[in-house]
Design a protein that fits this description.
By secondary structure, this protein is α+β, with helices and mostly antiparallel strands. The protein has helices at residues 6-12, 23-26, 46-51, 78-84, 106-112, 124-131, 137-153, 177-183, 210-218; strands at residues 16-19, 32-38, 72-75, 93-99, 155-159, 162-167, 200-206, 223-228, 253-258. Strands 1-9-8-7-5-6 form a six-stranded mixed sheet. Strands 3-2-4 form a three-stranded antiparallel sheet, covered by helices on one side. Helix 8 packs parallel to helix 9. This is CMP/dCMP-type deaminase domain-containing protein. Keywords: tRNA processing.
Length: 259
């Protein structure tokens, strides 16, 4: 297939590429719990006290031991905390609110750190999906071109941004565009596992049904771009989004294209 004229591509660049992400990543409501802390007047005692404390519970090890005002996290209950510190400090124990889960995104971290100092290891790619910086001019041009082609050709797969194969609806209950496309994927002689779509992008006119979405899982597709929601779609339209299902053994990225 020959490339579209550049002028036509430019007309198509005014699109919105929307990642369909798990609420785990997009949720900005930080869950909290209470923990017993020791408030010290003499900050020089902090090191000595920490030295004698047990590790924080495994599910709370994202928390820094010492707060901004010198409070030290001691234990989950008052009883445990009183046992852990000398008698002279017991009247200075108090409950504080802390984030109960580790922040995953930069936006979550910015909220969590105001509740209690928290460790954070940024995932730059995930943050780029959330803040939109993943949409480079090159990606916009690429997605514009092939999402436009999918309007007429229904389902197109590409590997390393090179055309691989396509599929359109045929008569028969199972002959959906995705099923036709995966049936035309070239065999990989060097691969014994038959994961023919590893690393591929798939552009669809319509959001896939459960059968087609599972076929894309089986073929190890990397990214799926679709233009229109479907009444039986399972990537955005359904309350159950297949690509976010924890129990499946492969997860591809999903993007809705709006023009």
């Amino acid at each position: 297939m020959t490339d579209e004229p550049l002028t036509k591509i430019r007309k198509l660049e005014n699109i919105n590429i929307i990642p369909i992400l798990s609420p785990t990543f997009t949720n900005l409501s930080i869950e909290t719990t209470k923990f017993v802390a020791l408030k010290l007047e003499d900050k020089r005692s902090i090191g000595k006290i920490i030295k004698n404390l047990k590790e924080l519970p495994e599910n709370l090890r994202h928390l820094k031991r010492v707060g901004k005002n010198g409070q030290i996290l001691i234990a989950e209950t008052i009883e445990e905390a009183e046992f852990a510190v000398d008698e002279e400090f017991r009247n200075s124990l108090e409950k504080v609110v802390v984030p109960s889960t580790k922040p995953i995104t930069r936006a979550q971290f910015e909220i969590a750190k105001h509740i209690w100092p928290t460790s954070f290891h940024p995932d730059k790619y995930l943050d780029s999906l959330i803040d939109g910086t993943f949409k480079t001019p090159e990606l916009i041009e690429y997605v514009s071109k092939w999402s436009h082609e999918a309007e007429n050709r229904q389902c197109i797969s590409l590997q390393n941004q090179e055309y691989l194969c396509e599929g359109t609806s045929q008569s028969g209950p199972l002959r959906h565009p995705v099923m036709e496309m995966v049936g035309r994927m070239p065999k990989r002689e060097e691969s014994s596992e038959n994961y023919l779509g590893t690393g591929c992008d798939v552009f669809l006119r319509d959001e896939p049904c459960a059968m087609c979405a599972m076929a894309l899982v089986h073929f190890r597709i990397k990214r799926v771009f679709f233009n229109h929601n479907s009444s039986n779609g399972v990537l955005e339209s359904s309350s159950w989004q297949l690509h976010l299902e924890p129990s499946i053994n492969h997860h591809y990225e999903v993007y809705k294209i709006e023009k």
